[in-house]
């Protein structure tokens, strides 16, 4: 009727917010809600004896209602599904959850406590493959080996040795043996290279290698390549009368020169003597005359000379 407004379409009110008819949404706690509006009832007419003159006919309308129910997740067909992400309700097979660690689709990894085992994430399933180890013993027991095997022991001359054991042969300390992979390997002890002559090498009791003897104590001094030897304590002159040498107790030679301190105006040099002699005589025209000796003068044959030591 004129002057009146048309009624609004029915809708749902949920927690203070309007929802359109047919709207669906998810509430916290994985609850799915929907707004449903019922069909309006048939119009009610006025009695015939009372016609509605000048009045509008009112049609009652019913408001919408909200229906909520728990979200129904489809059954996942994988062994290691990923939990629902933030804001989601259902797990996903687009990845794997293994030992608390999320793995992407196609990811290849090794578990932390499974040595040499390789795993792969495919369609939410984790498949692991372990190496095949041969039965029996193995050459070595290394932590990096994939197979858990025990190294073989060695049997040698009636005795059993653990893997890696080192031992010596009975009565032969110069040979060292080792147990490796069930077999015994023996080798001689290495000896150092000696720098002494063959006649000075010596093999002592209980020793595996030769050693050099101590050189014998010297009995004298060798002064040249001809084998001339002076006894210890011997003093001699090597050719210079002013130099004297002595043979030391350790076989070495010690030499020392003589310093001449006596001077005179007419020194006499005696062959084989280091220092000139001022008391032996006189030197005249290249000749040596002794004290109180007379001789003719070379310049004047009528003159006679005498050597006087002062």
Compile the SSE list and pairings.
Blueprint: E1 12-14, E2 17-19, E3 24-27, E4 31-36, E5 65-70, E6 96-98, E7 101-103, E8 108-109, E9 118-122, E10 125-129, E11 154-156, E12 159-161, E13 166-169, E14 172-180, E15 183-188, E16 201-202, E17 211-212, E18 220-222, E19 229-231, E20 235-236, E21 243-247, E22 253-257, E23 281-284, E24 287-290, E25 294-296, E26 304-306
Antiparallel strand pairs: 1-2, 3-4, 4-5, 6-7, 8-9, 9-10, 11-12, 13-14, 14-15, 16-17, 18-19, 20-21, 21-22, 23-24, 25-26
Tell me what the structure shows.
Keywords: Glycoprotein, Secreted, Signal. It is found in: Secreted. It contains no helices and 26 strands. The protein is an all-beta fold and 310 residues long. The protein has strands at 12-14, 17-19, 24-27, 31-36, 65-70, 96-98, 101-103, 108-109, 118-122, 125-129, 154-156, 159-161, 166-169, 172-180, 183-188, 201-202, 211-212, 220-222, 229-231, 235-236, 243-247, 253-257, 281-284, 287-290, 294-296, 304-306. The N and C termini lie far apart (180 Å).
Task: Give the tags.
three-stranded antiparallel beta sheet, 0% helix, 310 residues, mainly beta, glycoprotein, elongated, single chain, von Willebrand factor C and EGF domain-containing protein
Describe the structure concisely.
The chain is mainly β and 310 residues long. The chain contains no helices and 26 strands.
